[in-house]
Every structure is written in C-alpha cells, then in structure tokens.
Amino acid sequence: MVGAGHTPFGRGSSDAISLMIKASMAAIEGASLSPEQIDHCFYSNAFGFTENQIHAGPVINTAIGAADTPSVTIESACSSGSAALMEAYAHIASGLADVCLVCGGERLLHLKTPEATAYFAMGSDYAVEGTNGATFPGLYALMAQEHMRRYGTTSEMLASVAIKNHQNALNNELAHIRKSIGMSDYLESPYVAYPLRLYDCCPFSDGAAALVIAEERVARRLNSELVQLVSCARAGGPAALNQRDDLTSISSARVAARQAYSSAHVGPKDIDVAEVHDCFTIAEIIATEDTGLFPQGEGGRAAAEGLTSIGGKVAVNPSGGLKAKGHPVSATGIAQIYEIYRQLTASAGKRQVDGAEIGMAHNVGATGGSCTISILRRMR
Amino acid sequence: MVGAGHTPFGRGSSDAISLMIKASMAAIEGASLSPEQIDHCFYSNAFGFTENQIHAGPVINTAIGAADTPSVTIESACSSGSAALMEAYAHIASGLADVCLVCGGERLLHLKTPEATAYFAMGSDYAVEGTNGATFPGLYALMAQEHMRRYGTTSEMLASVAIKNHQNALNNELAHIRKSIGMSDYLESPYVAYPLRLYDCCPFSDGAAALVIAEERVARRLNSELVQLVSCARAGGPAALNQRDDLTSISSARVAARQAYSSAHVGPKDIDVAEVHDCFTIAEIIATEDTGLFPQGEGGRAAAEGLTSIGGKVAVNPSGGLKAKGHPVSATGIAQIYEIYRQLTASAGKRQVDGAEIGMAHNVGATGGSCTISILRRMR
C-alpha cells in the first residue's frame, strides 16, 4: 500500500461518485502518482442504483484523468470494499497489473430509513429472509439472543462495545458520530430488535475511502512509508440464517481467518490492532471470537474487561468502527484498511496504538454470506 | 475452459438467480467437477436490484452445493460478464485459484420497456447523458449518423448485419429471436432513433450463461475437449459521448484489442470466428473495425458483401449475436465465450464455422466506457 484517502463519514453534501472521486484523488496524491500510472481500478458502490448510476468506473476515471484505464465494479454487500481489494491483490499477484486503485463509496442518507433498510435487505437471501420481513437488525438480534443464551453474554457486555467505539471515534476527525456515551445512555436507548437497542446499531452513512496498492518493487520507488498487504482471503457461507449450524459464529469469517493467518505465517496473538465489522455490537463480539482474538463465547467478557480497548490486549476498532465512525456500505471494507494503514505508519494521532506492527481487517457481507480477512504489516 | 452452460435466452419463467443456478450447474456438469472443487466464483447480475437481490453469490453457492466457496459480483454495465471472466483469469494467473466458476444472468422481461430503458441508462454517464434524456438507442444513433456521414455507410449495410444475425440465430436453439428477416422487413420497421430502426436494436432478454475455467494442468485432468483462454484484456474510455474525439470508433475496444492480440501473439487475420457486441447493428460494424477485422470505415461494406457471414472471410456472430440470440445484460459477455467454446470444440451444429481454431470475443460496456477482448484457441 502506497497511498490512502478517506472522506469524512456522515451526511455528505454530494453524490457517491463525487465522494469516490475525492477519496481516489487523495489516495493518488498520497502515493505521489500521476493517474495514468494506474493499471487497473476497482470500484465498489453497491447502492449506486439508488442514484441512477451503475458502471461507475468510466465516470470516475474520466474525472480523475485516467479515462483509458480499465475499471470494474465489485459488489459483495457490506464486504464490497474488501472484495474489491482482493481483486486488486489478485491482479498484482498475477502480474497483470503493477499499480491498482481501489475505492469504495456510498451515499445512503438521501434515503429514508425504511427505504435504506429495504435496500440493505437485498444483501440477504431475499427470497427466504427479505420476503418474510427479516431485516439486518432482526437477523443480528437472533444471533445476539443465541450468544446470550449459550455463553451468558449480557446487555452490559454489548454496551461495552458501543461505549468503547464511541469513545474511540472522539479521536477520529473523519467519524460520523463523535459523541461519548455511557452505560445509562445505552440502557435508556430504545430497542430496535430485541436484545439490540439503538446504540447497538451502526448508522447509515455517506462517505468514500480509497487505497493505492502496488507491486513491491514499484511501491518502494513511490513511497517510503509502506504497509504490506501480507494476505487477503475470502470465504463464503450459507446465505440465510436458517441454513446455519451455529448462530453464534460466522463460518465464512472462521475459514477466511484461518487462510489469512496461514498464508501470512502469523496467528491471532501477533495482531496488534484490528478493525472488525461491528455493524451491530454483537457482530464485534462474534468477530473477535471468529478471528481467534478470544476463545468462542469470551468476546463479550473481553470487551467488558477492556481487553479490546486501545492499550488493552488487542485494540479493536480504534477508528470507532462501523458503530461510530459510520457505515457507508461499500466504503467500509476500504476504510478499515485505511485505519490499519494509519496505525501501522504511526499516523493515527490520539487514537494511535503504540508500536503497532501487524494489523488485521475483518469485513463481513450481510450476515456472513461472505467475509474477507486481510492481514497487514508495517514495512521497514 | 473445461465446461460451459447456457440457458435458453428469451422470456424466462424464473428469476435471475434461478437462471444462474441452472447455467452454473450445467457448466459444472460439463466440466465433470463436484461443486466443492471450485475455488472461487465470479457472478454478474447488474440488474439484480430490480428483483431485490444483490450479493447473489452466497445464494447461488448455497443452492449449487458450494456454500463455503468465496464469491463476488462483478459489474461493468453490458460488459459485466466478460469483466467477471477477467477476474477469474486474474485469480488463476496469480495462483490464488485453480478452478473458477464464472456466471452471468439477468431477468429483464419483468420490466416494461420504459423502465428497462431507464435502468439501462444508469450504465451511461448518468449526470451528463441520462439526466438529459439520452438513452442507448439515441447514443448509438449518433454514432451511426457520424459513421454514415464520414464513411458512406448506408441503411442497407446496417440491414445486412441484422439479416445475417437473424439468419444465424435460426440455427441456435438457445436464441431469443428465431425469425428470418429480409431487406423489406428491415426497411419497413419503424425508427427507434434515427437512423436506427427496430431491427437495428437487440432485444432485452432473460437468460444466463456460465463457464468453468481452470489452471492448465488441472484442466487437462478434467476434460479432453479444451479451449484455452489465451488472453483477456480490458480497457476504459471516456464515459460520455461528448468527451470522445471520434464517434465512429470506440477507443476502449481498440486499446483492449491491441493488448489482447499482443499477449496472444496473434493478429486480426488469425481470427476464424468472432462474437462481437452488436447491441445495435452499427455497433457490430464499429466492432469489426475496432478489432482490426476490417479497416476503419469498411465494416459496413464488409457485412453487405457477406464477408462476416459463416463461410465468409471471418464469421461474425454465428450465434445470432445480441441482435437475435438476445441480450440478458450480464449473461452476454459469457454467452459470447460459450459460443466460441462451442465453435472451437466443433460442437456448434448447423452454425459451425469449419475448421475454427482461433476465436475472439468483444464485449462493450455502455457506449464504450469499458471493453473486454478475449482470445481463445482450440487446445490439442
């Protein structure tokens, strides 16, 4: 990785394409590149159809001065951003490209909540879940109920995830929600889908994030502050919850994590900082278990004991996570890598994890039909 | 390539996901594989949102018995299918995968024509073209007008493309429109956008097509009837027509063709059979020029003289093309490769091009914002 860009998350003043152009230009400038040096562009904008624009690549490329550069749009629900990164990784590994731009962005706040919720439900197994009225808060609520029943996870443990991530976002000038919350705020917030309350749920956001990744020798010529994308692995899982053996774990995350650790020759104990897909607080708890940071059933207690805070055993979501930094769907997987890039280049300011050398990103599509795990390392 | 599947194109009796499952199963059976042997799946379904289903991969994979296999959805307007193929090609070239499934499908005939036209316009530069009422027939009509003005291309030349492709489709049992037309049918058909008449335009179709591609050693173990994907190249071009230097040529097609020929070590003269993106008759004429099959400005005359018919200098669109085989958007780029596969394995029945050894597919996104050129060769 040789450059990264990130617009503020929150209510954007422009369409997704404009946000993506902004983030892309920032990443290209950060990489000290001219746009024509990019061999291939990978874009994600899963809900572009709500703005009447699919085939985003040629529009963005024309605007950034790379009209002839090939592009493609990658979609994998909420894991679209990291899926795009995976394609760039494959192109560089194959030798088809030396320099790739990866950018994800979304505008969502022009939609009313019921509309946005309906569009999001398209990412589930719609025939099985969507048509029966199941939306993501409801599906994750089922996962939370089973986690509580089986492992004794409590509302206070869920709350501790929300409180930590809101706290972390106070130090992230790009975050959507920069507001400290306490246990009483959490417990007084209304239920969205029992046992999940308002403060268990991430917001919809507008925003974009971008990365420039390059083949190693090219990268070393471009930039001295480098982060290596050591491994990037994806796996699938049954689309609908009723096809799962276990509601307290996401099998695609476990499979992808195993592959990513194996090809990076590291294990969970080596991770200094992790950005995980906390679309709901329960999702962060399950993520820290699926990626082996904590044993199954221990994720809630770990959060409550401060083990996932900055300065704890492993800093989880120092950016504020989806929960507080925000969730512009297709930007999310790329924004996670942006945060790891900042952490590993020691440029994360007040939320810096001291001495971070190895980072991990965990990006889930829907309730786990897809998952990408990426492992990154500071380069010397 | 070790297997291929193709549903009938036309009015489907089921949703896009079901069509894609059907085509995928046929490709997997053709490859004598079990679904778990697939390392990665690449799906295209650009208009899935009209059926409330994005994130198609986990749903299809669960149905075909490959729930844990990673998947991703690839979109590049009408070149989505070939863009998906390119990603599979990159994964195999990188060593990340040995066996990939590529499948594109679409359901469009549940939409009324004005609705479908509006959705298609999302593939153009919507802010510039769509908001000003420009739809694809209008944009390609501008290209046709300029081609006629500059090169003397005539309505009769456009007609000869339509007549040939309708004729070819008579011998394709999977084609949407199996109806012979003559010059008077063409000339009596109403204008859609001057100078394009009804018979210059391809239909919207429902349908799906799928391919299994594998690393060479693996492929040789699986199947003895093999076709090699020798090269696959993509390029971009300015999104909107008003940003182009030349309306009579598509720059992305020229750039991609040059790259594809160069890495395959062949030239236009070596091509025995080509499937090109004839969304409108003028598009086939421009395609045969951009890919070097005929000199610029000569494509219309070549068609009128029968040089692009089966048995002519180079058979163009023996399947019937988008024009008569049909155009289920995301299936198209894959269906082109399916036809080349049939031709190069000498299994195209009555539309067989005798002794076909080298084939080419040309798949355009929108008016040329993207283009993929693939070159295939019969393997011995």
Q: Rg of chain A to the nearest angstrom?
A: 19 Å
Q: Name the pair of protein chains with the most residues at their interface, and give those residue counts.
A: A-B, 63 and 64 residues
Structural class of chain A: alpha/beta
Order of helices and strands of chain A: EHEHEHEHHHHEEEHEHEHHEHHEE
Number of helical runs of chain A? 13
Low-confidence stretches of chain A: none
Query: Alpha-carbon distance between the termini of chain A?
Result: 13 Å
The rough form of chain A would be described as: globular
Sequence of strands across the biggest β-sheet of chain A: 1-7-4-2-3
Number of strands of chain A: 12
The overall average pLDDT of chain A, rounded, is 97
What share of residues of chain A is helical?
25-40%
Oligomer: homodimer
Our estimate of the beta-strand percent of chain A is 15-25%
Largest sheet of chain A: 5 strands, mixed
